[in-house]
Each structure stands twice: as structure tokens, then as C-alpha cells.
Design goal:
It holds the Pfam family Ala_racemase_N. InterPro entries: Ala_racemase/Decarboxylase_C (IPR009006), Ala_racemase_N (IPR001608), Ala_racemase_pyridoxalP-BS (IPR020622), PLP-binding_barrel (IPR029066). The protein is an alpha/beta fold. The chain has two domains: about 200 residues, TIM Barrel; about 130 residues, Lyase, Ornithine Decarboxylase, Chain A, domain 1 (Beta Barrel), CATH 2.40.37.10. Helices cover about 25% and strands about 30% of the residues. It has nine helices and 18 strands. The strands form three sheets. The protein has an eight-stranded parallel beta sheet. A six-stranded antiparallel beta barrel has the order 10-13-16-15-14-17. The longest helix is centred in the first third of the chain and has 14 residues. The chain starts with a strand and ends with a strand. About 40% of the residues are buried. Bound molecules: pyridoxal-5'-phosphate.
Length: about 350
Amino acid sequence: MTFELVVDAPRWRAHLAQVAQTTPGLVPVVKGNGYGLGRDVLASEATTLGCDTIAVGTYDEVPSALADFAGDVMVLSPWRPFLPGTDVDDSRVIHTLGRVEDVAALAALRPDARIVLEGETSMSRHGLDRHQLAAAVAALGGLRLEGFAIHLPMAGANLAEAESWAAALETSQVETDRLFVSHLVPHELATLRERRPQLQIRPRIGTSLWLGDLGALDVRATVLDVHHLSRGERVGYRQRPVPRDGYLLIIAGGTSHGIGLEAPRAAAGVLARGKTVAKGGLEAAGLSLSPFTVAGRQRWFIEPPHMQASMVLLPASVPPPAVGEQVKAAVRFTTAAFDRVVLEG
Ligand SMILES: *Cc1c(COP(=O)(O)O)cnc(C)c1O
């Protein structure tokens, strides 16, 4: 009962199952903070969904993924000779290779490793450009080619770019008919499958799978203390005078939980409205809107969030919550760290 995520498990799982059923070849992405839910939770759901492969972000995430999941573990971050953990020797690991010299280096180090070659898309993050494909193939040696991978931007002409890579793949010497894709939306996936029926398309999906039904996810922060405040009273680390009478709420949830001074994007609408209402008021007094909702509205921080709690101002006209009550909080799930994740139901 501190800063927690309560998951309506039946509803969340119904969404996961719906995505899995309508996305053949799905490779769930299980990385980072596990989209707020934890990578162990996600790995176990991927097992329930019957997926044969999950994708992790980095080599540091490989050991726990191998322990939590019985199938294959693809590493999205490209293999590099200098990164710790890249020498993992497990036939369930699928490495991503995006530089010709890395193909040669891994082929020398672990000749029978399983790999995908990655193409450099308009993301310009990692990958081989088209002119390097022949050299990469020539350097493969005994490496086991599991497919070709492309990571597309979130905006733009993704279908056209995916199609042009599919075409390049067919005319290249890259001997695979499996294409791992990132960030194609369902109708783009459907069109690509229709136009390239000979390709096996494997979509790597995180956000729209795990966070695709936000209504199933409830963030609850416990009110730890409530103080009555008079205008001008000085509070907090910074001892700034409060701009008006009201209540000071000490709420569980601070920087260590991923609470920042900027309310997350999901709350932008509320933020904009709050700012208009408060023009010349609390914002002018240097306050920021907090992600905590009390009595139906987002409330203002008295000062920047502390490490594990936040100080939030409630106007005198609003009856304050009782100590021990929980309030809702808007979070950016990919940066949130909850004290507890509770799967209910
Ligand atoms: C993180 C990542 C994904 C998953 O992205 P979402 O937006 O969470 O679906 C897919 N592919 C690559 C290469 C990634 O790094």
C-alpha cells in the first residue's frame, strides 16, 4: 500500500490474448523495467500466450530472461565484441548483428551462434546498409542465420520502407525468408503479409501489447500524511512559502518511482486545462502540476518530488483524503518503478 500498480488481470490478459491471436509470429518485447510491470511478469505471460521467442533489450537482461522463459531469447541491442555478457553461450540466445566486422568477430568466437542480420532503416540507429549485405553474408561462416531484422521509426512511411527491405532481401544473398519487424501497425502488417506471402513476418511488439489497454492498469499512491496549511507558511526542503491556504498531502511516490516534475504525456490534456485555470496563480508561483489526482483533479507539487514521496497542495475548499487512503497517479510506464505490482482477479 505505497506506490503500486494494480492490474485487472482478467482484463489485461484478455487484451494480451487478443493481440497474440491477431498477430501471428508475435515476438513479445520484454525489456527495461518490463513496461512498469516487471520483466519476470511479462516473461511468464509470454509463456502463457504460447510464444516461442521473446526479445530483450540488452545483454544484461539475457540471464534473467533465460531463467524466466523456456523458449528463445532474441537480443535487440546489437552484439558488440566489447560489451559484457555478449559471450553468453546458450543455444536459446539469438544475437543481432549490424556491422560486418561483428559478423566476422562472432563467427570466429562462436561459430555456431544463432543470429539475425539487422538492416539500417531510416531510424539510423543500428544496422547494415544495403550495400553491406553481401559482405555480411560472406562473413557468416558457420553462424546460424535465423532471419533479417528491421527497426522502423514510430512515424513515417513504415510500410513502404518495410516493403523495400523485403524486396532487397529477396534479391540479396541473405538466405532467409524470416523478417523480424518493429513498429508496424496491424494494417501495415496485414498488407505486408498479403504482398509478401513467401516471407514469414515476425512482429516484435512491446508497448501496444503490454500497455495496449491502459484501463486494465491502475496506479495507486498512498496518502501518508495530511497537514493543514496557511498562506505564507514555509514548508519542505526548500522552505518556500505556500501561495494559499489549503492542505499539504504527503503522498507515496517520488523520484525513485519515476515521478518527475513534468506530468506524463497522457495527462497533457489535463495539464493544459490546469494551466489555463491557474494562470497567474499557482504556476506563476513557480509550482508544477503533479501526476497525482485527488478529488478528480490533478494537483500541484509544493516542491519537486522527493526520493520516495511527494508534497502536494490541496486547496482549502477540497476535503482532504484520510491518511492511508489511496489516490490515482498518472505515470509514464516505461520509466515507472512500483513498490508492488499486484495482479488482481
Ligand atoms: C523497444 C523495441 C521494440 C518494442 O517497441 P515498442 O514500441 O515498445 O513496441 C521493438 N524493436 C526494437 C528494436 C526495440 O528496441
